[in-house]
């Protein structure tokens, strides 16, 4: 007795079903293999970029190079940062930042920081007398990855930052050159001190000198003066007083031996060799006592 025979159409259906199951299993295995081989993006914190420098603050940008080794896109959702000066905490925080890195692709995350020198010197008194200080920045970048979910990847870097200090100006001396009944010629010498580790150049200076509450001289000078780092320089301002207009009191002050009260005010513009540093605009106002050198 012969058994039931399978028709050709039935055999084709079984073959198709078997092929479909095999294909699905292959796809699932390939997907599973891809997910199990997920790699975290690699990070490289490049050198800090000095983007701005003034007497008030220093602006920095930390560039983080990101490389995605996977075949699928990786999405950055945000980052946290901890910035230290002289091994002590100074700034920290978190920021939401969306950035998609294509599979096998690269991108760069820029983290800007602005540091005020007043905050630095108030927090770290010892830095007032230093030209630079060590820093350390620690970043944690958070990515949304398949299977792994939110993944934080740390990266850090350390280095050195310059510290800018305010140049100083003061009255050095007032010397009598010539004297007559109607005219007095004097040399006003101002001392400029540069406490920074880089040179400065005086571009212009306006001033007003008062002696015993009376204005003796005022004006604008554009004498060019180089002030080397950690050095002092002098600027000479010739003065000519019309004693006929100013009166006998001024003549008596010049010829007398008493100390005189003075007030020196004005402003100056200084240039530096640092390309990202804008011209420094300073005002000054000091007072004290002086004796005219004869």
Topology of this protein?
Layout: H1 8-36, E1 42-45, E2 49-53, E3 57-67, E4 74-85, E5 88-101, E6 106-116, H2 117-123, E7 132-145, E8 149-162, E9 168-179, E10 183-193, E11 200-211, E12 214-221, E13 225-227, E14 232-242, H3 243-246, H4 248-255, E15 260-271, E16 280-290
Antiparallel strand pairs: 1-3, 2-3, 3-6, 4-5, 4-7, 7-8, 9-10, 10-14, 11-12, 11-13, 11-15, 15-16
| Element order: H for helix, E for strand | HEEEEEEHEEEEEEEEHHEE
CATH architecture descriptor of the largest domain: Sandwich
For the residues shown, what is the average pLDDT?
88
Estimate the strand proportion. Answer: over 45%
- Tell me about the largest β-sheet: 5 strands, antiparallel
Q: What shape does the CA trace take?
A: rod-shaped
CATH fold descriptor of the largest domain: Immunoglobulin-like
Q: Give the domain tally.
A: 2
- By CATH reckoning, the class of the largest domain would read Mainly Beta
Specify the number of helices.
Answer: 4
Query: What ranges have pLDDT less than 50 throughout 5 or more consecutive residues?
Result: 24-34
Q: What is the total tally of β strands?
A: 16
N-C termini distance: 145 Å
The helicity comes to 10-25%
Q: What oligomerization state is this entry in? A: single chain
Q: Please identify the structural class as seen in this structure.
A: alpha+beta
Rg to the nearest angstrom?
A: 37 Å
